[in-house]
Amino acid sequence: MNLEGARALVTGGASGIGAATVALLDAAGARVAVLDIADAGSGQQRHRSGLAVRCDVTEEHDVVDAVARVEQAFGGIDVAVLSAGVGGFGAFLDLTSEEWDRVLGVNLRGTFLCLREVGRTMVSSGRGGSVVAVGSVSGFLTDRRMAHYSVSKAGVAALVKVAARELGPAGVRVNAVAPGTTDTPLFASTARLPGYRERVAARSALGAVGSADDVARAIVALLQLDWVTGQVLAADGGVSLWSPIDPAESLGT
Fold first, then answer.
1. For residue range 129-164, what is the model confidence (pLDDT) as tens digits?
2. How far does the chain reach from its first CA to its final CA, in angstroms?
3. CA pair distance 176, 43, nearest whole angstrom
4. Where are the domains of the chain?
5. Active site residue ranges
């Protein structure tokens, strides 16, 4: 898929991975609509041919209205990146239902609502399209004190596969990128965990914490792969390759 002139929608596009993706899409010549609960129309989020729409992805009417507005303004939607998300941290036995609902509401319900609406638009257009959702390696790793976050991202991975199967006959591809630890505003909350950043970097095969641009480049690449659908690509610098039972560690290698 050629992104020059493509009509793109990015949720969570006001900061972090979403904002980095907006910048890359804009540089590739796409028209980009940013959907975010924050102000997406100022500062670093300004782009040459785009649209900023305030949207709470947990609210169905917000999503329906926002996607319709983008479709009307652009005359259709060719690509969508669903990156709106929140973090969460807490011991399983202490998690409240309110905290559970908050995290799954944005990460899973929000992704479902946005994917459903852009999917409807792409199918009805008869032109197909490409969607990439942002998951996480936490969706297939076991991170203590992150039950709600991990479950939400595991749900995104399953949702992408089912949607890809159902929408494929209409030429709509649906994939996900699963970042590892990435230097974004969401990651900043880990600063209170002593030595966390250094430990993650040491366990990454590439020896570092990723940047929002690193993940955005993976998203944009996946958007353009015409013969790939229903896949979850780990864009994590190899941190998910680390094994706690690696015998080579006993040899100091």
1. 999 999 999 999 999 999 999 999 999 999 999 999
2. 43
3. 28
4. 7-236
5. 149
